[in-house]
Amino acid sequence: MVLVELGVVPDFVIRRGVRYLLQARLDQERRGGVEGQVNYHMEFLESVKSRNIAEQTDTANEQHYEVPTAFYTNVMGKHYKYSCCLFRKPKWSPGKPAQPLTEAEEAMLTLYETRAQLEDGQKILELGCGWGSLCLWIAAKYPNSKVTAVSNSRSQKQYIMQQCVARGLSNLEVITADINDFSPNDHGTFDRCLSIEMFEHMKNYKELMRRVSTWLKPGGMLFVHIFVHRSLAYHFEAVSEDDWMSKYFFSGGTMPSDSLLLYFQEDLRIMGKWAVNGEHYALTSEAWLAHMDDHKREVMPIMEETYGPHQKVRWFVYWRLFFIAVAEMFAWNKGEEWYVSHYLFEKP
User: Fold this and answer.
1) Which of 107, 15, 17, 101 shows the shortest CA–CA distance to 292?
2) Per residue, what are the HEC states of 5-74?
3) CA dist 118 to 105, 114, 227, Å?
4) How far apart, in whole angstroms, are the C-alpha atoms of residue 208 and residue 152?
5) N or C end of the chain: which has fewer CB within 10 A?
């Protein structure tokens, strides 16, 4: 790992190592054959009901969202979409991004509009708004809608509000809150709630779905975009040095199974469900990696500012490893193993 941290190990070697770890993860989670997997899955579902809605929120926030905005300016597309994008031709090759990232960002944002059944004039809540790709998009496209976005990051709120001023948007409010404590009581109820890659940071889905149902009007809908494994659900836990992604990038995280949310319909009922092949995410992460490499001169001072002069190279490498690992994971089995799922729930 020392040589890797120095940045002297070629990418093709790193990718082989990542694939080895992915296979090891699958072997570990598939223990006990089909009977053992189903039993474990049901035990997993039961166990999360007694946990907090989210865990290690401060650590997870520091790992991604308190890195200076300038870093993401050099990595993401025009809309700062820090989640899976949608490509016209999702054919992945290692180290090769596809069409322009901004175009793929806009394609996915447009797809959300259709699948969430958005209309002008609705009251809309976004949970886990990131750098504002979706809430800013909605506020601009639906000027008669009132949009409330929730983030656990001060820097994200600051950036989004700056964008509101620059774009002349007055129908968007950003609230900084831990999801464990958040309640929009003074905002009334909403027609739509959308969440893009936030549920992977959650644990107690039963309680989360119950709370969301209280924030929706009767007939209101929850749209969720999460990454999933086709059948396995597991926690990201740093139990060995091989679990560096859990330790440095996804503390308190969950890998949901494709069916996980369908077990929590006490308060909201499923109305629609879709899958997005994992190669779309692989191409997204390859694009982030390429942008970071292309802007190394701009990124290295940010690494020094964030992690210190003696850690800047190490963390530049860690971010590259993260993007490579994401790409390799979602490209596995031609995007049919890990991928993205969309769900539309309705409050009866």
Assistant:
1) 101
2) HCCCCCHHHHHHHHHHHHHHHHHHHCCCHHHHHHHHHHHHHHHHHHCCCECCHHHHHHHHCCCCHHHHHC
3) 18, 7, 22
4) 16
5) C
Mean pLDDT is lowest, of 4-8, 23-27, 68-72, 222-226, for 4-8
Q: Which two tokens stand for residue 146?
A: 């009132």
How far is Cα of residue 82 from the mean position of the Cα atoms in its chain? 7
> Which residue's structure tokens are 């620059």?
166
The more confident residue out of 218 and 28 is 218
Q: Which amino acid is at 256?
A: P
pTM: 0.92
Burial of 240 (0-12, 13-18, 19+ CB in 10 A): exposed
Highest mean pLDDT of the ranges 89-98, 201-210, 268-277, 314-323: 268-277
CB 98 within 8 A of CB 89: yes
pLDDT tens for 303-345 read: 999 999 999 999 999 999 999 999 999 999 999 999 999 999 9
**Are the beta carbons of 97 and 89 closer than 8 angstroms?**
no
The Cα 9–Cα 1 span in angstroms is 9
**Tokens 């692989």 belong to residue:** 282
Tokens of 83: 């989640």
CA atoms within 13 A on the CB side of 311: 9
**Phi, psi torsion values for 240, nearest 5 degrees:** -155, 175
What lies within 8 Å, CB to CB, of 138 at 6+ separation is 113, 118, 124, 126, 145, 147
92 contacts 327 by C-beta, under 8 angstroms: yes
Taking only the tens place, the pLDDT of each residue in 201-253 is: 889 999 999 999 999 999 999 999 999 999 999 988 766 665 666 566 666 78
